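Appendix B, Record 12. Input sequence as logged:
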Amino acid sequence: MSARVMETIESLVPRVEVYSIDEAFADLTGIDSVEPVCRQIRETIYRNVGLPVCVGASSTKTLAKLANRAAKRYRGTRGVVDLTDPQRQKKLLALTDVSDVWGVGPRLVKRLREMGVHTALDLAQSDPNQIHSQFSVVLARTVRELNGESCIELETAQPEQQQIMCSRSFGQRVTDRSALREALVRYTANACQRLRAQSMVAGQYSIFIRTSPFSGDPFYSNSISEQLPWPTDDTSVLLNRADRLLDHIWRDGFRYAKAGVLLTDLYPLTARQPDLFQGESNQPKRQALLSLVDRLNSECRGAITFASEGTKTGPTNMRQDRLSPRFTTRFTEVPRARLD
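Logged structural output:
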C-alpha cells in the first residue's frame, strides 16, 4: 500500500523523497497555485489507492511538517494546509507547542522551556547563533527553517541499505533441529531475494536462535556469523553454510521461539569483486536462473522454493490468528454483499 501511494505521488510531481513508509516530501518548485496541486495529490491517492492522506506545503521541510500536522488536526482544512504565506506561518507557529516541532525531542523541550521558549514561534524568534552555541547546529538549522530559510535538501536518492534481516517468531515452540533448520533456510531465501531486488551482494552471513524470555522456560540465545570468501547474492551459496553454522549454536533441551538471518557488509552488485581462483564461468547462467525464480515468486509468492525449505505447514510458521483481512491483495478475502 505504501509503494502504491508513493508511485501515485511520483506521477504527479517532478521529485519525491520517500521519508518513511507513510510519509514523503514532494518538490513543488515553480508552482504558483500550491493548494490546488496539494488537493489533487490527496484526491488522486484516495481515488487510486483508497487511503485518506493529509498534505502540508510550505517553503521548508520543517514548516511543511507543521502544515501537515495542522491538516490532520483541524477538520476545516479538509486535509490540506498551504503554509507558504508568511502571515499564516506566524499564526500557526504561535499555536504550535515547541514539542511538536520536527526534530525537537523531550530533552531539548525541557531545556527550551527553561529559557522561556514554549511555542514554535518562540523558537523561530530565537537567535540561531545563540541556539547553535547552547545546543547544536541541528537545532540552529531548525530555527532557520522555521523562518522560511530552506536548510534541509530534498533527498531523492535512497541511502544504501546497511543490512537485511529476516526473522520470525514461531507459532509453536520448536525442539526439533530439522524444523529450525528449515525455518533458517526459508529466511535465507527471503533475505537473498530482497538482496537481489536491490542489486546488492552480501559479504557476511549471520544466523541467530533464541527461546522466549517470557515463557518461564530456561532461556538461551546465541548467534554466529561468517565472513564470506567473496560477496554474493546466490541463495544456494548461503544455504550451504546455514546447516554448518547451526551446528555451532544449536543446543538440545531448549524450546526455541524465534530464529533469523542477517546479511551485512553489503555492496552494490556492480562493485562486486569476483573470486580470482574459483572462476565464475557459470555466473551469468546462475544469475539468469535466480532472476527467473524471483520474477515467478513476485507474481505468485512461494511458487518456487528450495527443497530444504520444507513444507508450508509446521511449528515454525507464525500463528497469525488475528491477521487483518487482505482486501487489496487477496480475491478470496474481498467482502461480499448479497442483494435480495
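The longest helix spans residues 177-197.
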